From TrEMBL:
<dbReference type="InterPro" id="IPR019230">
    <property type="entry name" value="RNA_MeTrfase_C_dom"/>
</dbReference>
<dbReference type="InterPro" id="IPR002649">
    <property type="entry name" value="tRNA_m1G_MeTrfase_TrmD"/>
</dbReference>
<protein>
    <recommendedName>
        <fullName>tRNA (guanine-N(1)-)-methyltransferase</fullName>
        <ecNumber>2.1.1.228</ecNumber>
    </recommendedName>
</protein>
<feature type="binding site">
    <location>
        <begin position="129"/>
        <end position="134"/>
    </location>
    <ligand>
        <name>S-adenosyl-L-methionine</name>
    </ligand>
</feature>
<comment type="subunit">
    <text>Homodimer.</text>
</comment>
<dbReference type="Pfam" id="PF01746">
    <property type="entry name" value="tRNA_m1G_MT"/>
</dbReference>
<comment type="similarity">
    <text>Belongs to the RNA methyltransferase TrmD family.</text>
</comment>
<comment type="function">
    <text>Specifically methylates guanosine-37 in various tRNAs.</text>
</comment>
<keyword id="KW-0949">S-adenosyl-L-methionine</keyword>
<dbReference type="InterPro" id="IPR029028">
    <property type="entry name" value="Alpha/beta_knot_MTases"/>
</dbReference>
<dbReference type="InterPro" id="IPR023148">
    <property type="entry name" value="tRNA_m1G_MeTrfase_C_sf"/>
</dbReference>
<keyword id="KW-0963">Cytoplasm</keyword>
<feature type="domain" description="tRNA methyltransferase TRMD/TRM10-type">
    <location>
        <begin position="1"/>
        <end position="221"/>
    </location>
</feature>
<feature type="domain" description="tRNA (guanine-N(1)-)-methyltransferase C-terminal">
    <location>
        <begin position="244"/>
        <end position="427"/>
    </location>
</feature>
<keyword id="KW-0819">tRNA processing</keyword>
<dbReference type="Pfam" id="PF09936">
    <property type="entry name" value="Methyltrn_RNA_4"/>
</dbReference>
<feature type="binding site">
    <location>
        <position position="109"/>
    </location>
    <ligand>
        <name>S-adenosyl-L-methionine</name>
    </ligand>
</feature>
């Protein structure tokens, strides 16, 4: 396989790509490394490769002409990738796909990057090695070359090494140990010394599963899991963001379709469905708020039917869901209740189907901002009935969440649907 590395610092690659297995792969012809020195293609006495950006701003840019000439000097470019923090994140699946290619060209930027018109001239794919900014693309290119080349048949000692590693099966890898068996009292796990290959395989699978659950739960949705894997994962301890999340359904003050402040009736369906979300996601609690006495009485009757009355006999699961529900006059009382339970004043995140377009408005809250709050303190997520929460509730919140489907023109969801979607996004563990 041939890598063409286009850079203004080709010597940068020498040591890392000549060492260890990579050095051997180059020696025995499995991998060829073609260093394309952009400076060789620069004109003028100074062989300058950079210039100032149009429009001003700090830093310099790599000029187009030397880059074009450098690229044109590569006869068989194959797929052309350019290292850029703007690119798609590089991963094991891409390394696998690229390892099937005969030629791959990697363009390394420097300074503030490269004149954008290079992308108009060649079918270049932008690729990033992470959400951080490096001085240049060379070190990212080294990562990519190594990740791709080691998947070539014959690169590693034995062919299955690549299959068992982290990410290959959508999970992190299990831990490894070598001699001595005991290092100052730190023993190698018994099972690895048992010689029982079935047990060793089970232990390794379980270690992979629990490491992924605790360190990279975002990998689990795409991992191929058996029922046994799922049963194992269910029994593992995990951080539950849900315990800090409380939801409130406000029936007053909300607005009607004319923007007037009104009270809306309590509905059976909202209470059932929100209680079930609260229980399913392990939330701290669900507050239905209304100051209207007959509405509170209605909600209380409903609760007692399902929690203690005939409903609880007929459907104990529903009783469990309703144990999460409390009926209060207003949001302030819900806040005091959370404070009494947790010893902390909850942060208030309001929800709305509309963007706040006032000039002085803060940018809407993102899920990750609310998740950060949840890691340290209780959060009360407030939903409105009718046509949404009245200004006096919105203005007391610490922020308003971005509407669900904010890029689309129709986003008229029922409050029950919005609750389910937003809670799921906030908990975001996809279990
Ligand atoms: C200082 S960076 C330029 C950053 C650029 N102005 C920006 O903010 O996106 C110089 C070069 O380093 C490389 N680079 C920096 N960070 C990278 C990353 N996370 N992944 C891939 N390449 C990166 C790119 O080739 C980039 O053109």
């Amino acid at each position: 396989m041939n890598f063409h590395l286009v850079s203004i610092f080709p010597h940068y690659f020498e040591s890392p790509l000549q060492s260890g297995l990579m050095g051997k792969a180059v020696e025995n012809g499995l991998v060829s490394l073609d260093y394309v020195d952009v400076r060789r293609f620069a004109g003028g006495v100074h062989k300058s490769v950079d210039d100032r950006p149009f429009g001003g701003g700090p830093g310099m840019l790599l000029k187009l002409d030397p880059m074009v000439k450098a690229l044109d000097s590569v006869e068989r470019k194959g797929r052309i990738l350019m290292l850029s923090p703007r690119g798609k994140p590089f991963n094991q699946a891409q390394a696998k796909a690229l390892s099937q290619e005969e030629d791959v060209t990697l363009i390394c930027g420097r300074y503030e990057g490269i004149d954008e018109r290079l992308l108009d001239l060649y079918p270049i794919e932008l690729v990033s090695v992470g959400d951080f900014v490096l001085n240049g693309g060379e070190i990212g290119a080294v990562c990519m070359v190594e990740a791709i080349a080691r998947l070539l048949p014959g690169f590693m000692g034995h062919e299955d090494s690549g299959e068992e590693e982290s990410f290959s099966a959508g999970l992190l890898e299990y831990p490894h140990y070598t001699r001595p068996e005991d290092y100052d009292g730190l023993a190698v796990p018994e099972v690895l010394r048992s010689g029982d290959h079935g047990k060793i395989a089970d232990w390794r699978r379980e270690c992979s599963l629990s490491a992924t659950l605790s360190d990279r739960p975002d990998l689990l949705p795409n991992a191929r899991l058996t029922v046994e894997d799922i049963d194992f994962l269910r029994a593992q301890p995990r951080t539950r963001l849900g315990r800090n999340l409380y939801i409130a359904l406000c029936h007053y003050p909300v607005v009607n379709k004319f923007g007037e402040k009104v009270a809306v009736s309590v509905t059976n369906l909202d209470l059932h469905d929100m209680a079930r979300v609260a229980r399913s996601y392990g939330l701290g609690g669900f507050y239905a708020t209304t100051p209207i006495e007959d509405q509170k009485a209605l909600a209380d009757r409903l609760l007692s039917h399902w929690k203690e009355g005939a409903g609880s006999q007929a459907n104990p699961d529903r009783a469990e869901a309703f144990s999460k529900v409390k009926v209060f006059d207003d949001i302030e009382s819900a806040v005091l209740d959370i404070e009494a339970q947790t010893g902390q004043c909850p942060r208030l995140a309001a929800t709305s189907a509309r963007l706040d377009r006032r000039k002085e408005a803060e940018p809407a809250l993102t899920c990750s901002e609310v998740q950060k709050w949840l890691a340290n303190s209780p959060v009360l997520l407030i939903f409105g009935t009718g046509h949404g929460l009245a200004e006096e509730v919105l203005s007391k919140a610490d922020g308003i969440m971005r509407p669900v489907r904010y890029l689309d023109d129709y986003n008229h969801l029922s409050v029950r649907s919005a609750v389910a979607i937003i809670v799921d996004r906030l908990i975001a563990d996809e279990y």
